[in-house]
Amino acid sequence: MDRFVMNFIIASIIYLGVASVLGVCMLGDESLLALKFVHSHMMLLGWVSMMIYGVGYHVLPRFSGRPLRYPKIGELQIWAANIGLLGMLLFYALGVYNPSDALRTLTVAFGATEALSIALFLYNMLATLLPKAGH
Ligand code: HEM
């Protein structure tokens, strides 16, 4: 298994643990419901998406009988996905307690990095899975 694939899976499991603790805290303290965006996105972009990226990078090329087209893009994606998610959640959470234009801008910038990481996956997977004409 490629290193970046394993890293996606390990990161995903860590996000599951952290987001679950936040979920339990939200159950116990209603004021923490202000962080619902952090919990839900750590679950869905962290736990769920990163597990799918990891398993998908490993399994889908094998199912289709074609090697992953751009492994380097996969290595770049793990950085973009984690930096984007962590930055977005950190600056969102800071902005909940101390709203400012600067924090809003940073949240958007890291959210855009997360979106870029999604685009990298989409491009790499489609380039791998879609047969080229004549092949
Ligand atoms: C230990 C496990 C979990 C706990 C204790 C927990 C707890 C919570 C709590 C307290 C809320 C806020 C509900 C409210 O609005 O009053 C919430 C929302 C949410 N959770 Fe979890 N959760 C857990 C696992 C998960 C998992 C595994 C996922 C997805 C993979 C998930 C996705 C979401 C989403 C998307 C929301 C937002 C729902 C909305 O906006 O209405 N949660 N969770």
Structural account:
- The protein is mainly α.
- The protein has one domain (3-129).
- It has helices at 3-28, 36-64, 71-97, 101-129.
- It is elongated.
- The relative contact order is 0.14.
- Bound molecules: protoporphyrin IX containing FE.
In short:
The chain has 135 residues and is mostly helical. It has helices at residues 3-28, 36-64, 71-97, 101-129.
Share of helix among residues?
A: over 70%
How large is the share of residues in beta strands? Answer: under 5%
Rounded to the nearest angstrom, the distance between the terminal CA atoms is: 26 Å
Tell the overall outline.
elongated
- Catalogue the unreliable spans: none
The total of helices stands at 4
Structural class: mainly alpha
Small molecules bound: protoporphyrin IX containing FE
| pLDDT averaged over residues | 96
**Rg of Cα set:** 17 Å
Count of discrete domains: 1
* Annotation, overall tally of beta strands: 0
Order of helix and strand elements from N to C terminus = HHHH
